[in-house]
Design goal:
single chain, mainly beta
Length: 69
């Protein structure tokens, strides 16, 4: 499964993603299109949550990217 974080978040915006026990979830950011670059998640293009794993993603305007909490 793939979950996509918004391309235009506001500072402090969060998303909780919970994986089912039989589901691996790739988390990426929505492509804003040129000329804006795609936002990163802790410096990466995407992250993978293992089955049963939960993740809270928070956007930091200071860092200019999503952070995993």
């Amino acid at each position: 499964m793939t979950m996509t974080l918004p391309k235009s978040p506001v500072d402090g915006q969060t998303h909780d993603i919970k994986c089912g026990t039989d589901v691996t979830t790739a988390v990426e950011t929505e492509d804003p299109g040129p000329p804006a670059p795609k936002l990163k998640i802790d410096g990466q293009n995407s992250v993978t949550l293992a089955p049963g794993e939960n993740g809270t993603f928070r956007y930091s305007a200071a860092a200019g990217e999503w952070e995993i909490r």
